[in-house]
Amino acid sequence: xxxxxxxxxxxxxxxxxxxxxxxxxxxxxxxxxxxxxxxxxxxxxxxxxxxxxxxxxxxxxxxxxxxxxxxxxxxxxxxxxxxxxxxxxxxxxxxxxxxxxxxxxxxxxxxxxxxxxxxxxxxxxxxxxxxxxxxxxxxxxxxxxxxxxxxxxxxxxxxxxxxxxxxxxxxxxxxxxxxxxxxxxxxxxxxxxxxxxxxxxxxxxxxxxxxxxxxxxxxxxxxxxxxxxxxxxxxxxxxxxxxxxxxxxxxxxxxxxxxxxxxxxxxxxxxxxxxxxxxxxxxxxxxxxx
Amino acid sequence: xxxxxxxxxxxxxxxxxxxxxxxxxxxxxxxxxxxxxxxxxxxxxxxxxxxxxxxxxxxxxxxxxxxxxxxxxxxxxxxxxxxxxxxxxxxxxxxxxxxxxxxxxxxxxxxxxxxxxxxxxxxxxxxxxxxxxxxxxxxxxxxxxxxxxxxxxxxxxxxxxxxxxxxxxxxxxxxxxxxxxxxxxxxxxxxxxxxxxxxxxxxxxxxxxxxxxxxxxxxxxxxxxxxxxxxxxxxxxxxxxxxxxxxxx
Amino acid sequence: xxxxxxxxxxxxxxxxxxxxxxxxxxxxxxxxxxxxxxxxxxxxxxxxxxxxxxxxxxxxxxxxxxxxxxxxxxxxxxxxxxxxxxxxxxxxxxxxxxxxxxxxxxxxxxxxxxxxxxxxxxxxxxxxxxxxxxxxxxxxxxxxxxxxxxxxxxxxxxxxxxxxxxxxxxxxxxxxxxxxxxxxxxxxxxxxxxxxxxxxxxxxxxxxxxxxxxxxxxxxxxxxxxxxxxxxxxxxxxxxxxxxxxxxxxxxxxxxxxxxxxxxxxxxxxxxxxxxxxxxx
Lengths: 290, 249, 281
Fold this sequence. Notes:
- Chain A is mainly α.
- Chain A folds into two domains: 2-43; 56-289, MetI-like fold (Orthogonal Bundle).
- Chain A is built from eleven helices and two strands; from the N terminus they run ααββααααααααα.
- Chain A starts with a helix and ends with a helix.
- The model of chain A has no long low-confidence stretch (mean pLDDT 89).
- Chain B has a single domain, classed as P-loop containing nucleotide triphosphate hydrolases (Rossmann fold), CATH 3.40.50.
- Chain B is 37% helix and 27% strand.
- Chain B is built from ten helices and ten strands.
- The longest helix of chain B has 14 residues, at 115-128.
- The longest helix of chain C has 34 residues, at 3-36.
- Chain C is globular.
- Chain C has helices at residues 3-36, 42-46, 59-90, 95-109, 112-126, 133-157, 161-168, 174-202, 206-209, 231-240, 247-278; strands at 49-50, 55-56.
- Chains A and C meet through helix 1, helix 3, helix 4, helix 5 and helix 6 of A and helix 1, helix 3, helix 4, helix 5 and helix 6 of C.
């Protein structure tokens, strides 16, 4: 008996430790990014870093201005959001409120299938199909552009936006709908006058999380957006995002060099941005639960 | 008459809302004490105070104490306490396993290794719960396939299998048809010889049929307690009379 | 406009928009299967690449990905399930729990390339593991931890509270109740989540970019401290860095990766459907 109680309490201690591991890991990630990133800011002006127009990490003197990278991420993300938000929310409405059960199951499996395709596969297919198509249709020198990236990322954000919006729509109490329908409103009127406002916080959270996913996406953007670290004039210019910069350059840096630390500093910026986005999305979701 | 369970100046709250107020109550060994009263009158809270199942609710707070054989239930470890005070819930709660495994679950988890011994316990407990004859040929069948009344008797057998001293019934027949109810009540009267029983029920007639003494709870207070016959024939308090006559839900 | 007509138009529009998502998904799968099938052969699956990747097979990349993923899940599954047990069964509703939950939400949102940086700083450099299977696996396991915790928590949460009460009321200890009543009933959900996680990390590239993946290693890994080729990284390399790459090899590699990932997702989804039908409560 005694030995069993002993193992029991040992396992329970292990369980508690794993619970705390989550906090420790977040702090560790922040700590290590900060450690390498702060080393960078000790030698490089933070204002220059954020607002500098030139990312020339290997020239002499080197330039570490990430404004072009921020603009690249911004163009791609905003472009993706403009496409993904209406499409995703409409699809969520169709799947949860309109589609017959059999169709709904097929559509949901399709969305799940999309979520499962690795980003490098989507990037590859985008490169060989979408990029040439964009070049021809818009008659631009290269299809490797922020626009192609935005299209691709909008597509990749769908599983997040659709499934979380769908949850939000489904959690609207049935009595709301019945009330409206009983008053003679059509199903469609009920959907956009009653369900949409009631599900709005959840849908907003879905949008935030979708955007978080888009900002963090790396492989597909790196393969599709053209990798030009210059401030774009239009959405049809090639760009380079913050994530793609880290992924493309880290392999070639000297460990511990300014370039190496500079990439960690970009990582720090990304970490802070996604942290804020998730925090907001989570507070929306908590509001839904209440 | 030996005092088995005693509540002294017991007050309970759920998230600040009082649930039991100033309760003083003694339960004697080998009696059936019926507790009647409308819902939210604190009956179940008192019952779950005895086996400390209220501890599962983080909003729960209490003052005063409940003793088992003279010892504060909070001085005992929960495992021993709950082994000694078995509970039968309002809805039949078989675990999703076979009939045999359900009854054998308690003894097995309490460290009994001999399969033969567990076989004996299972048979004895099912017989005591008057279920043996109905299930002896299909002990390996899922407990979920039994009827509601059979499931409830299975739960009684499962409780008996850990050899308690006290059985706490929490509205055990609220989901059952009259025939199943009669069977459960029959086993209760049989079990009284060996166990102390507290029967919480909102079925006034059930209390009058099986309990030796009956207490009436209302809004967290115990209004009246007495021999069942006395309480039903000549209630001292108007509110008791009103409830028995069917004035409150 | 007549509300009935408005509804008809609106619903058709919603349907078309939904197709805008679903059709490309099917198209992607179709293109990869059609173009890649011709590359698949015994030799392609079970030999190493030759002629600067332009011929031969992808065997080292398959083995590399499998070894990274298996190591990762071996670390993250027990840790994640235990953390989920803590949150669902033990944690009280207090400030600490809220901080833990918030941490998990934020871990889930960190971009995969930032995990790559973290793995590089901690495992490769600080703990001196070098670019290796173990460093990549640990990086992926931390990335997948919040997902495992969340799916396991949902599985635990779906076990009715009454089962716990029935067991506890018999004087069975809390851990024994979790071990013998809660976990067995949550297991299908936990396993489904775990398989989906394996599928997801099999396709991840960014976190292993600087922690585990090598451009070309002709031999198979000998220990967890070896660098390896990995399928997703290999696909990235041959589709962007190597000129005059025969298209069918690239498509073939994409096909193998896709089949690996989809087969696991499919297994997880059918498992979920099977257990939902079999569910006893």
